[in-house]
Amino acid sequence: MNIKDRVLIVEDEKRIGRFLQLELEHEGYDCIIEHNGTGALDRIGQDHFDLILLDIMLPDIDGLSICQRVREMSAVPILILSAKDDIETKVAGLDLGANDYLTKPFNSRELFARIRVLLRKRSSERLSENFLQLQNMILYLDRHEVQIENDVFTLTKKEFELLAYLVRNKNIVLTRDRILEEVWGYDYIGDTNVVDVYVRYLRSKIDETVGRKYIFTIRGVGYVAKD
Fold it and tell me: Which among 45, 54, 130, 175 has most CB atoms closer than 10 A?
């Protein structure tokens, strides 16, 4: 588990909140407790969390309203912990954006298992947001690098933007005009052959180096990145 995973516990009963904090910290999580909805919303707006454990019956703002408001500003996983076990409340919580619902009293092992599932899913989603893949090529969006097996290629900003656009739309034939508008912008003033020039740059740096073709020319139309 990543020790940087931060959990916000929103629980008005201090005894339960403290119990959750001790158990989670023992498992290696970093925990913050808020005992009311107002404090929780303020904290969420100012800080980063990887998971929220949310009680429903709070003294000021109910947990369902908090869930709805959090979803308007964040995709952080929400696990509702509540003594309310009726199906209507469970469905309402999930419909308002909660990722899971566990009724009190609960078994700690089950709670930790559900937390691990939510964090694994969140980690996978983040990873998918940070890279693109085409055949055996991986584009790391956060550091503008291209990796093919053990070889790492450093591209210019525009080369990377062009390649990323082609890979995001892989197996789709893209016209030169569309590429020009999406990568260089509608207000671009310059040589209209710039797309062809940069495709040659990419082929020279990548395709010719590894001896494999990634970007294909569709005569009279444009280009396609084939998976």
Answer: 54
